[in-house]
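To fix ideas, we quote verbatim one protein's residues and fold tokens.
>
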Amino acid sequence: MFAWPQIVLAPLAGGPSTPELAAAVSNGGGLGFVAAGYLTADELQARLARARALTDGPLAVNVFVLRDTPVDEQALKAYARELEPEASALGVELGDPRFDDDELAAKVEIATGVEVVSTTFGCLPAETIQRLHDAGTNVWTTVTSLEEARFARDAGTDALVVQGAEAGGHQGSWIDGDDPARPVLELLRAVAGVDLPLVATGGIAGRADVVAALEAGAAAVQAGTAFLLADEAGTSRPHRRAVAAGGATGVTRAFTGRRARGIVNEFMRAHPDAPSAYPHINHLTAPLRAAARAADDEQRINLWAGVNVAHAEERPAAEIVRRLRP
């Protein structure tokens, strides 16, 4: 088993994640993640190979665990009609709202053998976890409640990524409900009795946040927003500009159909009532977001960021790791 670094890079799927960023974090003494989310299996394989060529340090892969649950088809159609003027203004057609499992099985196969595989939105089956263990891979499961933590423990997971309300991007809860998320320090205390190593994530912006999480029982911390402006990050130009400017964050389903935290922009304000339908709405809005990104328009793209976005700094990733480390 590899020695756990205290500083872990959050997966940052959907653009900011790059092989260069993962490798730079690992080379700086942390644990770098290659995000599998939204990639094809072939793209994941290529990125993982690239990251491995850039570092001898530990690497991790994050995968989405999605279930095909019923969605409100009428609400989904109504939301598509609501978005048509947005797409027309950008000269694109909306995408096809549909379910897919993000090629989970193929991605787990590709990741088998890396130091860590973590999951978001759910827990891998016990038999899959055992296969990863047999290959020498640790399995971490993102949790947002005591119930999720106990289920993950019983399935054989090695550690819990404890995600608090402060975190940027998608809430990792296994069910996309409307109950308010709990702050990370409160959640750490709530799941302490599960008796697994805890990786705290949400609002980790500086050394003081790291110390507070470790004192609350975490074995390590996972930071994402702190790395959005890193030299090696693939954060788009409009997203970088918005992060550098700071601003209030809020939770929305407008872009993907699942609750996620980002910097508040015009799109979030204009579409406050998007239904719960993931990844259906993510596919629906993908062409719109791509066009807005190409047009350098930060008002029509998801600006995922945590509550402490104002503390993000433009620095090499290894330097960010050093500045976070107690």
In short: The CA atoms of residues 12 and 252 lie 17 Å apart. DSSP finds twelve helices and eleven strands in the chain. The two ends are 23 Å apart (CA to CA). Residues 1-66+103-233 form a domain with the TIM Barrel fold (CATH 3.20.20.70).
